[in-house]
């Protein structure tokens, strides 16, 4: 943990050079992200991209802790944040503190992230006052997919005032940054200008203080769906499918293993 950027360092980047954020769920991916990113999030997106769940609602504290511990081993420089899973904080500040403290103690993360704006203001304030840095998350909040009625763009037209009020509430509560998910780019810019803390966009336009993507999405490893806001920087899923098909063909044709893969030794 020595040498990692702190939540305070991230806060101090407001209005400065863009804060580069990425998710990671394993040690090797955390090591790769650590080399280039300022903040690594163990997102509850892991339920969908790693565990095949239909949404993030089934993600548990145990899953977040297991992946969080793996990611912590791979980070030397990036600030580490772990998502609070659905059901672990919504009952109230005390429940949120108990579970956030557990995530921090058992993973070694430096902060937690939770979804929600105005209705989470008291909870965020409670955590921050007791030593737990919090990253907010407003706009499209996937844990509320059933009340939002799908993964739709949030804050269009009149609804923009609600998302702005949510973001303001998160900042007012003492969060060190806030994720803005799936908003019109103009609203992302407006919220970024209005808040004293860094906004980290995912599908919220080019004017946020930083950006985040789900690593499996940007590497082309997750085939479930393809959000408009993702740029694919690699096609690792296709590369893996080709590699596995080539391996299967080689085994069937007795082309693998080759002489270089075979141990020598006298037959008895
Ligand atoms: O779970 C996740 O990966 C997230 C990011 C997309 C912000 O919450
Ligand atoms: Na999340």
In short:
The protein is of the alpha/beta class and 268 residues long. Helix content is 38%, strand content 13%.
Helix percent reads 25-40%
Q: How much of the residues is beta strand, in percent? A: 5-15%
As an assembly, this protein is single chain
Number of helices: 11
Average pLDDT works out at 97
Quote the distance from N terminus to C terminus. 54 Å
What is the CATH architecture term? Alpha-Beta Barrel
Shape summary: globular
Corresponding CATH superfamily: Phosphoenolpyruvate-binding domains
Trace the largest sheet across and list its strands.
1-2-3-4-5-6-7-8
CATH names the topology as TIM Barrel
Small molecules held by this entry = 3-methyl-2-oxobutanoic acid, sodium ion
Summed up, the domain count is 1
Catalytic activity: (6R)-5,10-methylene-5,6,7,8-tetrahydrofolate + 3-methyl-2-oxobutanoate + H2O = 2-dehydropantoate + (6S)-5,6,7,8-tetrahydrofolate
GO molecular function: 3-methyl-2-oxobutanoate hydroxymethyltransferase activity
Keywords: Cytoplasm, Magnesium, Metal-binding, Pantothenate biosynthesis, Transferase
EC number: 2.1.2.11
Question: Descriptors for this entry?
Answer:
268 residues; alpha/beta; TIM Barrel; 8-stranded parallel barrel; 11 helices; 8 strands; 38% helix; 13% strand; globular; binds 3-methyl-2-oxobutanoic acid; binds sodium ion
Descriptive account of the structure:
With 268 residues, the chain is an alpha/beta fold. It has a single domain, classed as TIM Barrel. The chain is built from eleven helices and eight strands. It has an eight-stranded parallel beta barrel with strand order 1-2-3-4-5-6-7-8, surrounded by six helices. Strand 6, helix 9 and strand 7 form a beta-alpha-beta unit. Helix 5 packs across helix 6 and helix 8 runs parallel beside helix 9. The protein is globular. The termini are far apart. The mean pLDDT is 97. Bound molecules: 3-methyl-2-oxobutanoic acid and sodium ion. The site of 3-methyl-2-oxobutanoic acid has 10 residues, from loops.
């Amino acid at each position: 943990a020595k040498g990692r950027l702190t939540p305070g360092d991230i806060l101090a980047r407001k209005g400065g050079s863009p804060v580069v954020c990425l998710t990671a769920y394993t040690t090797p991916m955390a090591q790769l992200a650590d080399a280039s990113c300022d903040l690594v999030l163990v997102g509850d997106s892991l339920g969908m991209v790693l565990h095949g769940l239909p949404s993030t609602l089934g993600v548990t504290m145990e899953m977040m802790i297991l992946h969080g511990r793996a990611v912590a081993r791979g980070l030397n420089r990036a600030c580490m944040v772990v998502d609070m899973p659905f059901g672990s904080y919504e009952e109230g500040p005390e429940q949120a503190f108990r579970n956030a403290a557990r995530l921090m103690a058992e993973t070694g993360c430096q902060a937690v992230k939770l979804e929600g704006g105005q209705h989470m203001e008291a909870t965020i304030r409670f955590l921050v006052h007791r030593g737990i840095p919090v990253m907010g998350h407003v706009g499209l909040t996937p844990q509320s997919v059933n009340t939002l009625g799908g993964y739709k763009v949030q804050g269009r037209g009149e609804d923009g005032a609600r998302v702005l009020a949510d973001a303001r509430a998160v900042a007012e509560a003492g969060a060190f940054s806030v994720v803005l998910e799936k908003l019109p780019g103009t609203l992302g810019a407006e919220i970024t200008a209005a808040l004293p803390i860094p906004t980290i966009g995912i599908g919220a336009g080019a004017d946020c203080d930083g950006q985040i993507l789900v690593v499996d999405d940007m590497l082309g490893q997750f085939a479930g769906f393809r959000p408009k806001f993702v740029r694919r920087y690699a096609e690792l899923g296709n590369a893996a499918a080709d590699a596995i098909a080539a391996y299967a063909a080689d085994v069937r044709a007795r082309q693998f293993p080759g002489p270089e893969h075979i141990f020598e030794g006298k037959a008895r």
